[in-house]
Amino acid sequence: MRVNCAALSETLLESELFGHEKGAFTGANALKKGRFELADGGTLFLDEIGEISPAFQSKLLRVLQEGEFERVGGAKTIKVDTRIVAATNRDLEDAVARGQFRADLYFRICVVPIVLPPLRNRKSDIKPLAQLFLDRFNKQNGTNVKIRRRCL
Description:
Blueprint: E1 2-4, H1 10-18, E2 19-20, E3 32-33, H2 35-38, E4 43-47, H3 54-66, E5 68-70, E6 77-79, E7 83-87, H4 92-97, H5 103-109, H6 126-141
Parallel strand pairs: 1-4, 4-7
Antiparallel strand pairs: 2-3, 5-6
């Protein structure tokens, strides 16, 4: 299960991750389980985690530390056991140093860091990646598109 944190406002992100109760806000016509609840016992991928607001960082930290949350508009505490994989294009260590990202949240999500340099610094990876995506495209579309040698 994955969520792009940058694509949603703080309010929508909270509802998406924690769910909401019927009547919690206009348009909440039914109870909706959030991604944490749906991923209980599994893994949740949070893309662009560096974009979340300081207020939401503390809510996310609570779930990671305590394994519990409340749905938007709810009072019942829900317990979950969800593994988090997070990604960002931001330098979170720098954001922590500048006070823009919570240090305690950073240390909770940075258990096994994988730093991948940008593709512009890995030019030798371009050709095999282009071929991989082209092969996938050809298979999905029943085509036989090829890359000209001079293009690579």
